[in-house]
Amino acid sequence: MTRPHLPPRPGAHVAPAPAVRLEGVSAAGNGAGGPGITLALRPGEFVAVTGLPGAGKSALLRLIAGLERPASGTVSVAGVAVGALRGAAVARFRFAHLGIALPDMPLVDALDLRENVALPLLLAGAPRGVALERAAEVLRLAGVTGAAQTLAPEEATAGARQLARVARACVTSAQVLLLDEPTEGLEPAAAEGVLRWLRRLASVEGRTVVVATSRVAVAAHADREVRLRSGALEAA
Q1: Ordered domains of the chain (ranges, CATH)
Q2: Please, which contacts does 32-41 make with residues 24 or more away whose CB atoms are closer than 8 Å?
Q3: pLDDT, tens digit, for every residue of 187-213?
Q4: Structure confidence by residue, pLDDT tens digits, 224-236
Q5: Parallel, antiparallel or unpaired: strands 80-81 and 72-77
Q6: Rounded Cα gap, residues 196 and 145, in angstroms
């Protein structure tokens, strides 16, 4: 006799659905012919993607972001298969669910640092005053304070520009943050500060923080290390 399916008991632990799921994923020209990467990233998890140069760290972030299509396998974010989206739907989904800081996403020279960080909010229709206030707070949490927030990118230090790029990725309520080498060019104290903040975004706000890094000190802050080799998963 088949027993009926019963819902979980009140108070019973139910594991949350993965924020990001990869099933047999390989990038074009990278790791082709292998089993691909199968991986689940949980809400509230801080994950460091590590590996030697050319291992596929940046490519993995771009696949999750839907900026590139996998040669094989599927990538899902918030339960949606990113590869199934087309045209403007990809951009809308990315805007709603992902905060992204990649090397090929520079700041806008005509805007100061605070305005750069506020840009995603302004594009979403937030009132300018509200967007700038939120941007100032996020910049402060990232480590840029006072008059430095209103400097143009060309006037700001390299470290402040880097922190502004990270802050811009985190300023919305996007639940998955994809950050490529977020501590690149930062002084040790600034790097430590921004990593502690990213850790809080995961542990307190429940956001999934995915950091591509070649630095052991950065990976030490993560809940889990995902190590890549030649586009394949070496350890997770």
Answers
A1: 20-235 (3.40.50.300)
A2: 32/71, 32/72, 34/231, 34/232, 35/232, 36/70, 36/72, 36/73, 36/232, 37/73, 37/228, 37/232, 37/233, 38/73, 38/233, 39/226, 39/233, 39/236, 41/176, 41/208, 41/210
A3: 999 999 999 999 999 999 999 999 999
A4: 999 999 888 887 7
A5: antiparallel
A6: 17
